[in-house]
Design a protein that fits this description.
Blueprint: H1 26-34, H2 45-56, H3 67-75, H4 85-88, H5 98-116
The structure holds iron/sulfur cluster (SF4).
Iron/sulfur cluster (SF4) binds next to α4 and α5.
């Protein structure tokens, strides 16, 4: 509604994309926590503002344009709640994902313990 009419967007609302705040559903909240866009445990307005501020670093003119891509990771179940090598090892976000890095560290520690036994 706010982006210029281009056949997909309608450009009907008189505000700029930079003024938008990301809608935080369960997918956006979880994946934003995975990626360090927020550490907040609840999906509140403050969380939405914090995620939007983090996304603004990537595109100050349209920080919410990442909404569909982030949400779709959750909706499509391509981003698991726990580390899943089948999905995470081919994920381009793994270097910045706390679920993957924490899980990998946990797995490495477990293997090290097993080797010592
Ligand atoms: S590494 Fe795994 S958990 Fe992290 S964002 Fe990618 S798919 Fe999701």
């Amino acid at each position: 509604m706010v982006r210029p009419a281009d056949g997909i967007d309608l450009g009907l609302w008189p505000i700029t994309p930079s003024e938008l705040v990301i809608p935080v559903d369960t997918h956006i909240h979880r994946i934003s926590r995975n990626l360090g866009l927020t550490n907040r445990r609840t999906a509140t307005w403050a969380t939405a503002e914090e995620i939007t501020a983090a996304l603004r670093k990537f595109d100050p003119d349209d920080p919410v344009k990442y909404d569909f891509a982030l949400c779709h990771l959750g909706v499509s179940r391509d981003c698991p709640s726990r580390p899943d090598p089948d999905k995470c090892e081919r994920c381009v976000l793994q270097d910045v994902c706390s679920v993957w890095t924490t899980g990998r560290e946990r797995e490495s520690a477990k293997k090290a313990r097993e080797l010592r036994l």
